[in-house]
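Recall that a protein's primary structure is simply its ordered list of amino acids. Everything else, from secondary elements to tertiary packing, is in principle encoded there. The following example makes that idea concrete.
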Amino acid sequence: MAAVQEGYGAGVGQAEGRFTIVGLGGWYFAIPLERSAGSMEAVSLTRVPMAPEAVMGLTHIQGRILTVLDLRHLLGLELEGGPRRFLLVEDEEEQVGLDVDTVEDIVLVAPLDLDSIEVELPPGVRANASGFFRWRGNPVVNLSVERLLK
């Protein structure tokens, strides 16, 4: 799983780091590995009355209650289908699940500045992005967990 990507932004602004790559609606996104706490198959959720739209529900995992958020909604992407996998992400106060299509890889890269990306990003993606890199020929947008979960 842990692939090392060389030559993709080395020496350009951002320090080299490890990232978890996830697929969502035809896009690839990266979460810093130190904020990733694993992934799991999607399970049934308990809806929360009057919760914000991005809250898909709650589930019980390893003796804790896990809030699951709809990443498509947080990024302003087209909503479609049900949950496939949950990427567990460490917030400052708790662990949350993000609904994603796939968990692809873990890579070591030095991300490029977001201004040099060659594709147009939807406004919600751009607002939560902190850089990008290329993986298997595809652009991968780094997400800022802090901005995403505030």
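The CA atoms of residues 47 and 132 lie 34 Å apart. Confidence is low (pLDDT under 50) at residues 1-12.
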